[in-house]
Write a structure and sequence with these properties.
It is built from 10 helices and 7 strands. It is mainly alpha-helical and 246 residues long. The strands form 3 sheets. It has a 3-stranded antiparallel sheet with strand order 3-5-4.
Length: 246
């Protein structure tokens, strides 16, 4: 029964924010806000936080690095995140970030001396504003490792199985084993829904009318780690009048 209930503080995000800027972006922005409240790094009248992509990724272990980078870049491009460089060493290119609270219709975040409903605010997790060599902790109490929940929320794996059924005429179900296959390939290479559809299209084109091969139109063949990328880059034989190209 224990694995049916959340036993650690989850990442939280308002549906209205996710609807406004995207789910991945909302999760990142909420986590950045969490740290900005605790930051003592003030520059040019604003509070800032800084971290390497590698360290940020440890706070979002359910995403690939590319997915995280895209979410942060999207927030910068849409000006929800403002980046800067206040590093003392010229060679240090670590980005500093602040949230553009005005674009969200909000004021600046509370400082640590102001009231808050978060009992963990004064737990010593704030940055030291006198130096720029300290990075954020590698993990926080807000980070969840409940991968299955995150995966189901982030990636519409069921649509991949539905598409395979539609193209092959088969009836595979939304089972845990099929979910693991699809989500694992998505995480391994940041493959998209369109990539999965391309694999299905490629192999249906080659195997659907071959009685010896059509049995392999199934998730455990198409989405196997050792085969998936090869199927994705496959160029099916094209039909011509009177036969096929060799």
């Amino acid at each position: 029964m224990g694995n049916l209930l959340i036993s650690e503080p989850p990442l939280q995000v308002l549906p209205s924010l996710a609807n406004k800027i995207g789910l991945n972006e909302a999760i990142v922005l909420q986590q950045f806000h969490y740290w900005l409240i605790r930051s003592n790094n003030e520059r040019d009248g604003h509070k800032w936080i800084y971290n390497s992509y590698t360290s940020w990724h440890k706070q979002f272990p359910f995403w690939s690095m590319n997915t995280l980078k895209r979410a942060i870049l999207s927030l910068e491009q849409d000006e929800y995140l403002i980046s800067g460089n206040y590093n003392k060493a010229g060679f240090d290119k670590t980005k500093w970030y602040r949230i553009n609270y005005g674009k969200l219709g909000m004021g600046q975040p509370l400082t640590q001396s102001e009231p808050t409903s978060d009992p963990k605010l004064d737990d010593g997790s704030a940055h030291n504003g006198s130096t720029n060599t300290n990075r954020l902790p590698e993990s926080t109490s807000e980070t969840t490792t409940n991968h299955s929940v995150a995966e189901a929320t982030q990636f519409d794996w069921q649509s991949v199985i539905d598409y395979l059924n539609e193209k092959s005429g088969k009836h595979f179900r939304h089972t845990d084993s099929n979910r693991r296959l699809v989500v694992s390939r998505h995480k391994d290479g940041d493959f998209t829904i369109d990539d999965f559809k391309r694999v299905i299209d490629n192999q249906c084109f080659e195997w659907l009318h071959d009685k010896n091969m059509m049995k392999y139109l199934r998730p455990d063949t198409l989405f196997r780690a050792s085969k998936f990328e090869g199927y994705l880059n496959n160029t099916p034989q094209q039909p011509r009048q009177g036969g096929w190209f060799d």
